[in-house]
């Protein structure tokens, strides 16, 4: 039987009150099922971040699982120099980039990344008024627009604007300098048409959802593969 919060001795309410640091400490002390708390806490962010790099839904979930397993395997090495959230995000970014390179889709920075040629990636037609009247369809429009950005811009945009990380946190998560984050974000915004970007500010929190059965599926898959700590 796979581990669960019930087998950890902590109720869902009690677990929700634990800080990230307390969860890490207790998991390292042997309460393996409590790792579920961290996954459910950050599944949305990790999904959005990984998807901003890979965009293939099945592959995204696989990379998420690998990232969580890697994090669990190195949990004892977490030193608290950054938040648990940023630490998990950085692991997920590295896993996603590694997968991208392995599959031969690594994009070398060049004119298509940093220059005007990137504009050719944009669809020419803007969403019609009827689409703009329906929140769900608006979310899909935003997702399409964000997906059209070059990978380096897209990941920064998702972390800064969708997830709400600060410049410092984004730089730390991606392993780049703060000026790089600022430059990429500026260029991402420049490539978003003014009207479409105005929509993302209102609806960004609703795009790339990751909950319900999908969240449960990733959590269950990871828990089933977690080794028991001594």
Topology:
Layout: H1 5-8, H2 12-17, H3 20-28, H4 35-54, H5 57-73, H6 84-102, H7 111-114, H8 129-132, H9 135-147, H10 151-162, H11 167-174, H12 178-191, H13 194-203, H14 212-225
Helix pairs in contact: 4-5, 4-6, 4-10, 4-14, 5-6, 5-14, 6-11, 9-13, 10-12, 11-12
Q: How would you characterize this protein structure?
A:
- With 230 residues, the chain is mainly α.
- Helix content is 67%, strand content 0%.
- Helix 10 packs across helix 12.
- The longest helix is centred in the first third of the chain and has 20 residues.
- The radius of gyration is 19 Å and the shape is globular.
- The two termini are 18 Å apart.
Cα distance spanning the termini: 18 Å
Number of strands: 0
Tell me the Rg in angstroms.
19 Å
How large is the count of helical segments?
14
In the CATH hierarchy, the architecture of the largest domain is Orthogonal Bundle
**Regions with little confidence, pLDDT below 50 for 5+ residues:** 105-124, 127-132
Number of domains: 2
The CATH class assignment of the largest domain is Mainly Alpha
- Which descriptor suits the 3D outline? globular
> Could you give the order of the helices and strands?
HHHHHHHHHHHHHH
Percent of residues in helices comes to 55-70%
- How can the largest sheet be summarized? none
Q: In terms of structural class, how would the helical and strand content be classed? A: mainly alpha
Within the CATH hierarchy, at the fold level, what is the topology of the largest domain? Rna Polymerase Sigma Factor, Chain: A
Residue share in β-strands: under 5%
Fourth-level CATH superfamily of the largest domain = RNA polymerase sigma factor, region 2, helix turn helix motif
Mean pLDDT value: 80
């Amino acid at each position: 039987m796979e581990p669960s919060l019930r087998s950890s001795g902590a109720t869902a309410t009690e677990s929700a009150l634990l800080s990230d640091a307390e969860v890490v400490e207790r998991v390292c002390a042997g309460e393996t099922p409590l790792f579920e708390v961290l996954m459910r806490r950050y599944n949305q962010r990790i999904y959005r971040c990984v998807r901003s790099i890979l965009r293939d839904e099945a592959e995204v979930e696989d990379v998420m699982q690998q990232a969580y397993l890697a994090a669990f395997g190195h949990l004892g090495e977490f030193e608290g120099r950054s938040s648990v959230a940023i630490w998990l995000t950085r692991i997920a970014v590295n896993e996603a980039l590694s997968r991208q390179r392995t599959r031969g889709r690594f994009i070398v920075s060049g004119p298509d990344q940093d220059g005007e040629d990137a504009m050719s990636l944009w669809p020419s037609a803007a969403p019609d008024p009827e689409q703009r009247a329906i929140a769900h369809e608006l979310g899909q429009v935003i997702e399409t627009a964000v997906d059209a950005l070059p990978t380096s811009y897209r990941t920064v945009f998702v972390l800064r604007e969708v997830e709400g990380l600060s410049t410092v946190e984004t730089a730390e998560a991606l392993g780049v300098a703060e000026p790089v984050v600022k430059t990429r974000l500026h260029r991402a915004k420049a490539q978003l048409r003014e009207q479409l970007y105005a929509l993302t500010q209102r609806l960004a929190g609703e795009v790339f959802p990751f909950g319900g059965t999908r969240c449960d599926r990733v959590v269950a898959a990871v828990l089933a593969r977690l080794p028991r700590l001594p």
